[in-house]
Amino acid sequence: MVARLYGPPVALGELEAELSAAADRQLDLPVRADEVRMDSARMLRVQGVPHPMRREALDQLAARVRIPATYLHRCPDDLVALNVNRWLERLSGELLIRIEGDEVRAVLSARYQPVSHLSLVRTVLEQVPDDTPARYELSPLHFVAQVLTPTALSDDGMHGGLYLGNSETGHRVVELHALVYRVICLNGLILMDSASTLRRRHTKRASDTLDEARSMAREAWQTASRLPGRFEAVRSVRVPDPEAALDRIAVRYQLGPDLGRALIDAYRIEPGNSLFDVINAVTRAGNAPQLELTDRTELQQLGGRILDLAERGERWL
After folding, report:
1. What is the pTM of this model?
2. Can you state the angle between helices 242-252 and 275-284, rounded to 10 degrees?
3. Residues of the chain with confidence (pLDDT) below 50
4. Pfam families in the record, alphabetically (predicted)?
């Protein structure tokens, strides 16, 4: 699977079609540990059938048998097989092997309760029309989507929406948050409000997680419909030196030099002297293509956190 980065919104139906096509190529194999072996070509034999392994799946297998993944990647192929098989022989219990096409995409504990990207989208958005705008990012490790209100909720082109996050390979939790999206800068601000936020590990029944997500989505849509007005309200809060404020934000929230530079770069695209402009720069930096998804998501969530703190009169800087 080739990673797809955030871009302009597409129709929700297009997103569903891509997720459905991916699901058709996927297979789960619950197996005993003694039904799994590595061969000298780094192929994982599952019940005797050889499968190529994605790097991240080999990392998971290494963790499962308690071999440092960095060491395993440096080993010649025959030594990889020798090491892995030696410890697989001592491993008891069951594993969940997740396959896509012919490749092993994940090696997980049998306790892992998969929530598919497709079922998350269909459950949470079951009443949402197919032409609803959605931005999304999809890679072998993660899926995130921003599903937007069809029409703007402010004169500045701001939409309410939902943020969904998931991994089918054990690399992140199931997430749902309210958000506000600003068309002019492809800018999503994620609100980490506990009343409209869901974060669940893949350790409970998938149907229970999906039921929670469906219920939480109703509250999140209502929260999202109010967000544009809340964001607009901070235009009246003056910030005398926005670039200095952004530098202090980078220090206060321990963002590091790459994210700090992204804040300044984003601000200079659309400068201004209000708290709105500062928050806008933080969330706009969350689109910087040179940053990892975790960093971009952190910036979009930080924008929501600053907005929430400022509204409550608490220290945000």
Report:
1. 0.88
2. 50
3. 1-2
4. DUF932 (PF06067)
